[in-house]
Amino acid sequence: xxxxxxxxxxxxxxxxxxxxxxxxxxxxxxxxxxxxxxxxxxxxxxxxxxxxxxxxxxxxxxxxxxxxxxxxxxxxxxxxxxxxxxxxxxxxxxxxxxxxxxxxxxxxxxxxxxxxxxxxxxxxxxxxxxxxxxxxxxxxxxxxxxxxxxxxxxxxxxxxxxxxxxxxxxxxxxxxxxxxxxxxxxxxxxxxxxxxxxxxxxxxxxxxxxxxxxxxxxxxxxxxxxxxxxxxxxxxxxxxxxxxxxxxxxxxxxxxxxxxxxxxxxxxxxxxxxxxxxxxxxxxxxxxxxxxxxxxxxxxxxxxxxxxxxxxxxxxxxxxxxxxxxxxxxxxxxxxxxxxxxxxxxxxxxxxxxxxxxxxxxxxxxxxxxxxxxxxxxxxxxxxxxxxxxxxxxxxxxxxxxxxxxxxxxxxxxxxxxxxxxxxxxxxxxxxxxxxxxxxxxxxxxxxxxxxxxxxxxxxxxxxxxxxxxxxxxxxxxxxxxxxxxxxxxxxxxxxxxxxxxxxxxxxxxxxxxxxxxxxxxxxxxxxxxxxxxxxxxxxxxxxxxxxxxxxxxxxxx
Length: 558
Known about the structure:
The protein has a seven-stranded parallel β-sheet with strand order 11-10-9-12-13-14-15, sandwiched between helices. Strands 18-17-16-19-20-21 form a six-stranded parallel β-sheet, sandwiched between helices. The chain has 21 helices and 22 strands. It is about 35% helix and about 20% strand. The two termini are about 25 Å apart. It has three domains: about 5-150, no CATH class; about 160-340, 3-Layer(aba) Sandwich (Rossmann fold), CATH 3.40.50.2000; about 345-530, Glycogen Phosphorylase B (Rossmann fold, 3-Layer(aba) Sandwich). By secondary structure, it is α/β, with parallel strands linked by helices.
């Protein structure tokens, strides 16, 4: 099955048996496809000898360098009826000798189109499938091929404003997903703007390559404050006066810029649709951040739900977060979908070579200071002490520890070792390119969080083809657990801390000792992940929301 998107160019060829063949090219428009009559192309073809005709229709996507056939079917007339058959997009409609009325044929075609996946629901088929017939007569026959869309923006190119404080892949999961969404929308024909409080040269270059327009804050003379989220939330009129004049969609991130997105919509773009993206579950994560954070859970959830009830659409990152907010918003009757991130190309294209050496490298990813309980670094410290006692040449590298945080991070790790000392190598790097280089050197990547709403690094490690161990308490484990070909990395973090650390240590030792076998398994998981493309359905739903997914059905009028 080949998907078609707003802006794609298709070639429609209609040929009559022993008669004419005509072709037309057309550019798909989501706006036109949403209209009652859909988007159509008509061609006049002669009926040979004025008799009922047989013919074929081929629709090809010529957007690609190598054109791809999207749909092929045959049609023929019998007396005062017409039929469609031999649909070649996942199934076949066999030719029938029986006579039927045009209405019967329409219903049959609807049923068979739905079965092929061209139409995903009976409602969509009813919306877009049309067919007409006239008495066969001498003279021209008109071939009418139509396309339809399941959603549409306010213009031929929807204008999307994404609200965030940064842009790029080096700032954590939220910013990585923000960039993925922005670049994805831009690649499918949207005009995309993204706010940012500041950007490094690399981030600006990334935005330009993605086709995304960055909007920076206006600074005033004498104001010595550094740009902050208040500028987006409460002071956007003054600090962001240069927002586009017309916006169809506004996107915010819960609970970072969700309030800012809501404020900007209500005060400046009341007709825009508000899309909120949920990334966090305070009831899960705040339990491991200290008493003050625990006491603020109720207030945080009230604020989140207040923002969500004003949204037109909600997207939740991964199955765990989606399940949580499905429950939290069940009384609000909101449109709510899951968004599964796609690993960045830098990971999917990464080549990994396993060489059997005595030196074994264990890689953890993320800040330690203030996150030791939540991210499970106390468990890693205990586990790595046991690993190093059995495998003396094992090394622990901690990616994302800044020089400023190192002294306190070192003290936190040491405090969780009952006897002796444990050494780890802090790596201050933050970019995806640097993370890839470290993954290439690693024998296993760890993500042992006690609570992790999603955990993008776990999915990235699988996409890179590196052995990885992820906590069963993570959203990515929820996702992996649904597929028996992908559940190998899951570690049960249960019981008291000492038992959990022992379980983790055993799994790490097993991976390090069975390196060749583990890397072969990681390779197969990568191949399965990339072949199955589990994110594709959620990405199509995402495009549909913004009017960028063109849903097509084909009908021929004679």
